[in-house]
Amino acid sequence: MQDMDADYEIPQLYKRHVFACYTQRPPGHPRGSCGALGAQPLWDRLGKAIESQGLTDTGFTAAGCLGFCKAGPLMVVYPEGIWYRPTTSEDIDEIVESHFKQGKRVDRLVMVLTRS
Amino acid sequence: MQDMDADYEIPQLYKRHVFACYTQRPPGHPRGSCGALGAQPLWDRLGKAIESQGLTDTGFTAAGCLGFCKAGPLMVVYPEGIWYRPTTSEDIDEIVESHFKQGKRVDRLVMVLTRS
Question: Are B81 and A112 an interchain contact pair (Cβ–Cβ within 8 Å)?
Answer without folding.
Answer: no
